[in-house]
Amino acid sequence: MKSGWPCVTCPNRTSGFCGALLGKPVEDASSDEQPNWQHYRGARAGEQVMVRNQPCERVFVLCNGWAFRFFQLSNGRRQILNFVLPGDLVSAVTVFEERPHFSAQALTEVRLSGFLRSEVQTRFAMNPGFSATLAKSCVNTINDADEFITALGQRSADERIAYLFLHLMRRIAARNVVRDQRYRVPLRQQHIADAVGLTPVHVSRVLSQFRDRGLIEFSGGILHVRDVPELERIGTLN
Amino acid sequence: MKSGWPCVTCPNRTSGFCGALLGKPVEDASSDEQPNWQHYRGARAGEQVMVRNQPCERVFVLCNGWAFRFFQLSNGRRQILNFVLPGDLVSAVTVFEERPHFSAQALTEVRLSGFLRSEVQTRFAMNPGFSATLAKSCVNTINDADEFITALGQRSADERIAYLFLHLMRRIAARNVVRDQRYRVPLRQQHIADAVGLTPVHVSRVLSQFRDRGLIEFSGGILHVRDVPELERIGTLN
DNA sequence: CGGCAGTTTGATGTTACTCAATTTAAGTGG
DNA sequence: CCACTTAAATTGAGTAACATCAAACTGCCG
Question: Does the CB of A197 sit below 7 A from strand C?
Answer without folding.
Answer: no
